[in-house]
Specification:
With 98 residues, the chain is mainly α. Helix content is 81%, strand content 0%. It has one domain. The structure holds magnesium ion (MG).
Length: 98
Amino acid sequence: MAKKQGGWAEWDKTMLKAIQTWGRSKQFGIAIEELTELIKQILKHTNRGEENRAELLDEIADVYIILRQVKIMLAFTDAEIHNAIHKKVERLRTRLEI
Ligand SMILES: [Mg+2]
């Protein structure tokens, strides 16, 4: 297999295949699991002061991947996600007075 560059344009084919293979219900369940796993790693880091950067990175990657699938399952466009984030960042900038 040829080496791939990576990026959502390419990864989305795999996201779609995962949704088609396992179904929406299963993938929504995975989303809850992955979010919970990230929460656990954040708690280890903040409450127990554990040095768990590798685990945090792993869970952050899992959450990005499954959130991408959630985005696809709910038929949100890249533009909708971009605009929603942009609005929130602008609101944050206002609160930060920057
Ligand atoms: Mg995970």
